[in-house]
TrEMBL record, chain A:
This is Guanine nucleotide-binding protein subunit beta-5-like. Keywords: Coiled coil, Repeat, Transducer, WD repeat. Signal peptide: none annotated. SUPFAM superfamilies: WD40 repeat-like (SSF50978). May interact with RGS9; this interaction stabilizes both proteins and increases RGS9 GTPase-activating protein (GAP) activity, hence accelerating the deactivation of D(2) dopamine receptor-mediated signaling. Residues 82-109 form a coiled coil. InterPro entries: G-protein_beta_1-5, WD40/YVTN_repeat-like_dom_sf, WD40_G-protein_beta-like, WD40_PAC1, WD40_repeat_CS, WD40_repeat_dom_sf, WD40_rpt. It comes from Nothobranchius furzeri (Turquoise killifish). The keyword Coiled coil applies. Belongs to the WD repeat G protein beta family. WD repeats lie at residues 129-161, 219-260, 261-304, 305-346, 358-390, 391-424. It comes from the Eukaryota.
UniProtKB/TrEMBL annotation, chain B:
It comes from Nothobranchius furzeri. GO terms for cellular component: heterotrimeric G-protein complex. It comes from the Eukaryota. Coiled coil: none annotated. This is Guanine nucleotide-binding protein subunit gamma. Keywords: Cell membrane, Lipoprotein, Membrane, Methylation, Prenylation, Transducer.
Length: 424, 68
């Protein structure tokens, strides 16, 4: 080591002393965790210490001890204490609120007053996809605009052709509650994960007789359930969110962890990638009631929003990439503008008391489809903040709503074991 | 010891807040106008918003076919 971290410690030769770090080190800019066996004396017993104190065996005026300097403490300025940092964090939070408040010169719905109201929608259910034996928890469209993948509580993942209602592939996972599924951009594979704490990628084959389940490959490993997954712009990278409070970016081929995202203080329930034109960011929402925007390359949390009053079940980017919406158990959906760094709309009604589980935008971003636990889908006018329509049909909670890639259809998955594809 | 880990955690929180406080922000009026503009520009191409003619709709209800 370049510097002796215990320089300045008072050492009693020949005795075993326990020294409290705060007092022994001057300046107090290093946290020393002492562990391991002594390097010099062979017969010495292992030295170990609880965090924050060090005990060492001294012999012959040499320190026979292994020391590991905790990197996190470097840079702690003189005089910084827990109290002063707490004060600074309070000040910073207040400053953030002030800064955000200064820019709220007008509300979104006020700006949108002059916009024509949305004409009455005539969206009807055109297809009902039956085949799952239990609650359908998630679904995703393929880029070819007609195929979709869905996953359910009984461990089954089905790939459907939404036009013909044909089931093209059936994958059985060894776990129940497959909460996440995603279609690869190429259409040649699907990813799925859930209570097995993993996210697996399954290549789809054109050969009907081939057993696709056998080619399943585990890519992501978390320490708790996988709640959401999404391929990035290619089939090669997979982004996952988990009940362990983190999100992670994985290389599909090697299964290697490329980047992890820490910041949520509870389960992360949902994630969405920014539309490709706008760059390498994604948004996540979780049980800590926060929605965080992340930089995929650095792992840095860029922006954070804590307006919701309960778990955030779903987050989705606005088509332009400059904003995103969230759905929460507090029965509201909210809309945030990223450049103004604040919430700009709340979609709620006194008559809506059940949590919202999922949201998605129509192609132009004018309509927000939100699935609720009261079995309905409410369609909101994003700009005016009013409800345009209610879609009925499901006989249990709506777990997921997704607009098709060309914006022509809306697919909704539900705990009533079915998926419905609706169109005008 | 919990106080040292608290200190480390607190330091992270302060660092994150400093970062968030320093980003550039736009006025809501400007942001709202841009959002509205995006909606208007793309409204024509939004099938769920404007509806689509039944001849191109692959999900249209099937018509009955009769032999002549």
């Amino acid at each position: 080591m370049s510097q002796d971290p215990l320089e300045g410690c008072r050492i009693s030769a020949g005795k075993k002393s326990a020294v409290s770090l705060g007092k022994a080190l001057h300046p107090p800019n290093l946290l020393v965790v002492v562990e391991g066996t002594c390097g010099a004396c062979v017969a010495a017993s292992p030295v170990s210490a609880p965090e924050g104190s060090c005990s060492y065996n001294v012999a012959h005026h040499h320190l026979c001890v292994c020391v590991r300097v905790c990197m996190a403490w470097q840079g702690l300025q003189k005089g910084e204490t827990l109290a002063s940092l707490k004060q600074e964090s309070e000040n910073l939070r207040r400053k953030l609120e002030e800064e955000r408040g200064k820019l709220t010169d007008v509300e979104l719905h006020q700006v949108a007053e002059k916009v024509e109201t949305v004409a009455a929608l005539s969206i009807k259910t055109r297809r009902v996809l039956k085949g799952h034996g239990n609650k359908v928890l998630s679904m995703d469209w393929c880029k070819d605009k007609r195929r979709l993948v869905s996953s359910s509580q009984d461990g089954k993942v089905i790939v459907w052709d939404a036009f013909t209602l044909n089931k093209e592939h059936g994958i059985t996972l060894p776990c129940t509650w497959v909460m996440a599924c995603a279609y690869a951009p190429s259409g040649c594979a699907v990813a799925c994960g859930g209570l097995d704490n993993k996210c697996s990628v399954v290549p789809l084959s054109l050969d009907r007789n081939e057993n696709v389940t056998a080619k399943k490959k585990s890519v992501a490993m978390h320490t708790n359930y996988v709640s959401g997954c999404s391929f990035t712009n290619s089939d090669m990278q997979l982004l996952t969110s988990s009940g362990d409070g983190t999100c992670a970016l994985w290389d599909v081929e090697s299964g290697q962890l490329l980047q992890s995202f820490h910041g949520h203080t509870a389960d992360v329930l949902s994630l969405d990638l920014a539309p490709s034109e706008t760059g390498n960011t994604f948004v996540s929402g979780g049980c800590d009631m926060k929605a965080n925007v992340w930089d995929m390359r650095s792992g840095q949390n860029i922006q954070s929003f804590d307006n919701h009053q309960s778990d955030i079940n779903c987050v989705k980017y606005y088509p332009s990439g400059d904003a995103f919406a969230s759905a929460s158990d507090d029965a509201t959906c909210r809309f945030y503008d990223l450049r103004a760094d604040r919430e700009v709309a709340v979609y709620q009604k006194d008559s809506i008391i059940f949590g919202a589980s999922s949201v998605d935008f129509s192609l132009s971003g004018r309509l927000l489809f939100a699935g609720y636990n009261d079995y309905t889908i409410n369609v909101w006018d994003v700009l005016k903040g009013t409800r345009v329509s209610v879609l009925f049909g499901h006989e249990n909670r709506v777990s997921r709503v997704r607009v098709s890639p060309d914006g022509t259809a809306l697919c909704s998955a539900s705990w009533d074991n079915t998926l419905r594809v609706s169109r005008t | 010891m919990s106080s040292s880990s608290n200190l480390v955690a607190m330091k992270k929180v302060v660092k994150q807040l400093r970062f968030e406080a320093s980003i550039n922000r736009v006025k809501v009026s400007q942001a709202a106008v841009d959002l509205q503009q995006f909606c208007m520009q793309n409204a024509i191409q939004d099938p769920l918003l404007t509806g689509v003619s039944s001849s191109t709709n692959p999900f249209r209800p099937q018509k009955v076919c009769s032999f002549l």
